[in-house]
């Protein structure tokens, strides 16, 4: 099975093998990763969450992908929402650029879980995931604690109200709504990879989880993308913790 953005054992598509949505390679086993600077009980997590900071220059690294085009403008992330029990979903323009024909393309991040199952199936096709029943895709989305998306919205010049919108990225998390969350199914349209969007998607999802006081965040990473997640603050097997899996014997 092709590997797709570093998140494995995908319950979204019913896979047992590691998936890396950036197409960075295949693997037969996944590695459980934890964010360092986070303990595994909520009291300690609350105390240390303030130490979990995005890498300095993160937005600069995204800007650098576009600065070669002088018509490109990067929209800064809005300030973090005030901490509350259940923050409202976020939606904002992550990147905006002007194309050669004058059309404006915006990359919009949302944590509101607005995903059309047919659009998701099409995105899975683009990154090489096998098709699964749409009813299961819909159930996986509905039962997720949080679904984060990236949409491309293209506005042609002189055509007000005539926008082209397409799903170009998604990640989701399951949770017990109290202590723990696991990130699954991170994928980015291949034509939009290499621009820092996968990194932005995961970091914004982590921020949204921390706002909900979820202090223990884990994911499963293919071996080829462990360094990608290390750079986001994850570490494999902290304090000797090991991921273990049970599969039915067929």
Question: Layout of helices and strands, plus pairs?
Answer:
Elements: E1 31-35, H1 42-48, H2 58-64, E2 72-73, E3 91-98, E4 104-110, H3 117-127, H4 134-142, E5 146-155, E6 163-175, E7 180-188, H5 197-211, E8 216-221, H6 226-230, E9 234-236
Parallel strand pairs: 7-8
Antiparallel strand pairs: 1-8, 1-9, 2-3, 3-4, 4-5, 5-6, 6-7
Domain N-acetyltransferase: 107-250
Pfam families: Acetyltransf_1
Keywords: Acyltransferase, Transferase
Describe this structure in words.
The protein has 250 residues and is an alpha+beta fold. It has a single domain, classed as Aminopeptidase, CATH 3.40.630.30. Helices cover 22% and strands 25% of the residues. The chain has six helices and nine strands; from the N terminus they run βααβββααβββαβαβ. It has a nine-stranded mixed sheet with strand order 2-3-4-5-6-7-8-1-9. Strand 7, helix 5 and strand 8 form a beta-alpha-beta unit. The radius of gyration is 18 Å and the shape is globular. InterPro entries: Acyl_CoA_acyltransferase, GNAT_dom, NSI-like. GO terms for molecular function: N-acetyltransferase activity. Belongs to the acetyltransferase family.
Total of helices = 6
Task: Return the structural class.
Answer: alpha+beta
Count of DSSP E strands? 9
- CATH top level label: Alpha Beta
- The poorly predicted ranges are 1-29, 36-59, 65-70, 79-84
Shape: globular
Give the strand order, joined by hyphens, for the main sheet.
2-3-4-5-6-7-8-1-9
Q: Report the CATH architecture.
A: 3-Layer(aba) Sandwich
- CATH homologous superfamily? Gcn5-related N-acetyltransferase (GNAT)
Distance between the termini: 19 Å
Helix coverage percent: 10-25%
Residues in β-strands, percent: 25-35%
